[in-house]
């Protein structure tokens, strides 16, 4: 199944009554700091604290009652986990979630609180894909991949449907959108929606420095892999390589990707605290970090930024509060 | 001028294109912690970080061009200051703001950043009302009071217009609303809107313990004064006595008021960080704090909570993060 506007609209119809239509925020003080007008789509306010709930609801709601009866399994550093756990609960399925040993404590606790069984694995040593496939086979569970799943991509793309309306209502004149990127489910879905509904807006992916597989893959025209999966504070978007389904979409529709430092990310989190009163997690703040850097794009341009999630431990958030 | 639904609707028409229609948030995890369904109106996401921008825009937009030409003056611990400063800038008037010596640094800095002249006074020693009146007379400025002004009350009441629609869309079945209360501008405006549009919802004021002049005044049927104006972390809502214009409205339309401890407030701020990804300042979190206390109202009831602002120094926010 190729994801087109039709699949995104269908997904939105299935999930609309369960998700938050997140606001498009702006702030005169943020604009003053950025030196340009910024519009921020606030997905930390999404149910379960990140956009991943959209894709999870889309995927779970597309399953037959027989499959729901057997249950679902997912691997995730945390946000997809919480999304699938709650979506499964809503549609009456049991969920098993495979999470890395170093996943933030709050993400593990929340996933369990939504009623899911959590299985841990050692990131960088064990393969979560292999564990997921094995559990799916052994227990007859349906595997919901975090980004290489058309229904997941379509669900994430629903952000684009809301965004296009909200930008028009706000009178925004942005021609670039910055989007946090891990495996590319969000950016591929969003780029697909923009391609149909707002061709004048170009999506750029943003990743942590040293984990910019998508930016390098886009530049080379083929999928490359990061040297390591460990060492970034942006746990939510550290993936080894762009997705099989997502990369061709990004190659077709997205502009060059950017990368930002951990320091720039912590600073962006502090700026969002100060000016937007929004809690953003490190992986969710990379796009805002790039937007605050005048070197990213010509500084007279309005920019749209997606803040993708807010599930951050208080210890990490305290590091950000010490900035600025 | 008595404020009725008509004045609130007129105010909304003047300010609608300048304010954020703030989302009504809920969260399964918050509901689990509260032991009941909660709906939270997120005014920290309002422009300038608090609901005060609504009332300030309403008051400034109602002024004649001659009055705007001379300029406006306001006294405020911070949120009304920021609201008036930005509203004045939007409508092309110069603003002078009288702020207490112990106002949070970020509120002072923001007020100046919006282009206002800031004059400091010693809270508990000097009278901000006297300084405001004197400046108004000397310099021909128009004084915009923080709550005892019909246009301000009507502007704050605009929250009620949005809320009634949002609660209906969400299928909420709440019969009680908890609202942070300082001088009563927000609660009087909101109670007036609810009285016309949602008679089945009773508004209750919430204040800090030791500063519960409204709760005690409602209980006695006449305006009483707090023993002190100092010593609460809830700087935004520490006012000595209910307003002259606001109290009769609350006496008529509001249910009994509640009071909460500083500890309960810090805990509520942490819960909002964890479950809603929303930054709430102490004075803005008293209603959520009351909602989290099972002793406040029968715990099988759905509740609506207004979070009124998010302008908190990082030092105070760090105290909250250490909770729970």
From TrEMBL, chains A, B:
Say which domain of life the source belongs to: Bacteria
Residues covered by the Tryptophan synthase beta chain-like PALP domain = 16-309
The protein, known as: Threonine/serine dehydratase
* One family name in Pfam for this protein: PALP
Tell me which cofactor or cofactors this protein depends on.
Answer: Ca(2+); Mn(2+); Mg(2+); pyridoxal 5'-phosphate
Keywords of the record, alphabetical order, are: Magnesium, Pyridoxal phosphate
